[in-house]
What we know:
Layout: H1 7-13, E1 19-22, E2 27-30, H2 32-37, E3 55-56, E4 66-73, E5 79-89, E6 99-106, H3 108-154, H4 160-186, E7 194-196, H5 198-209, E8 218-224, E9 231-233, H6 235-252, E10 257-266, E11 271-278, H7 285-288, H8 308-318, E12 322-326, E13 334-340
Amino acid sequence: MSTFPEDIFDLIAGIPQPVLIHSAEKIIFVNAAFVELFDYSRPEQIESRMMGEFIAPWRSARPRLGRREATGRKRSGGSIDIEISTLPIQVSENADITLYQSIIKDVTEQKNWEGAMLQSERMAAMGRLAGEIAHEINNPLGGILLYANLIHEDLAPESQARTNLEKIIKLATRCRIIAKGLLNFGRSSSKTYAPVDLNQVIKDMYSLVEDHKILTRVRTTFSLSKALPHIMGDKGQLEQVVLNIMINAGEAMKGQGKLDVTSFFSPEARTINIKFEDTGPGIPQEIRTRIFEPFFTTKQPGRGTGLGLSITHGIVQRHGGKIKVSGEAGKGACFELIFPVNISG
Length: 345
Ligand SMILES: Nc1ncnc2c1ncn2[C@@H]1O[C@H](COP(=O)(O)OP(=O)(O)O)[C@@H](O)[C@H]1O
Ligand SMILES: [Mg+2]
């Protein structure tokens, strides 16, 4: 076997990029940057081990030349996304073994970032689609409800058809509520802001859902401030916000418990605060930051869309407001909406 020019080691040793010299299958030399990237403390812990232990996939029969993406296996067993560029090096004219030099680039962070970008674009696109579909469904549903109600009026109170029809109306109303929840995704914010009485919004939305099975057995109390200034806003959207939070509370409590709704005006902060406190399981700290993500749900497929809070968040933000989530896991959840008021207006 030919001798390897030692000075190339010195040359590579100080390069800030992780570099290694290897045969088709065995590692011969690694520099300090490589040792550090793979979480080892000394080159001897790596040298003379197999390439495949560190770089996957690795083809020992005929290493792939040029640049490609691969996975690096760290000492801890954890993996990193890497880019590896491999070139054969000429050792001497009649070398009996081909050696290669590979330069490694850690692209884990870049990958994560690209993934997140892609994810958020996909979310936005899916959200828009959901909004458009909801819009298409919402109108015929309105017609179904209208005609069902007309028939309902004509039926004798004791008829079986009447009970069945009432079920249809209830279910269609449920669909309407879901569709309404999705509608905003398709719309960009309409700038039709007018004075809105949030207390009224709360009462209207409660009357819409109080007979819904998720809330019929929930004791709901209201302490609504009589001196609540109006805010400039989009009433339809604010209705959705209140609806989403109330339904979530009912769902979290599995239809049984207590929901306290409070509204007050804080003259110092010049804000209107609306609080929804439930006696459900609360929200574990680990998922607290994720509940506003589109499509994040802890509910079974078919149950939750994961869109409610992301829509809610978007609407509140467009109104210049904030949402505060509190409550310990196991002790119920509290969603507080904080809207700025411009009293001079
Ligand atoms: N009042 C609440 N109590 C406990 N968890 C809640 C509450 N409201 C929302 N969550 C959590 O936030 C998640 C996301 O809510 P949301 O965006 O409305 O989607 P969905 O209701 O379809 O699951 C829920 O799946 C649930 O885990
Ligand atoms: Mg929801």
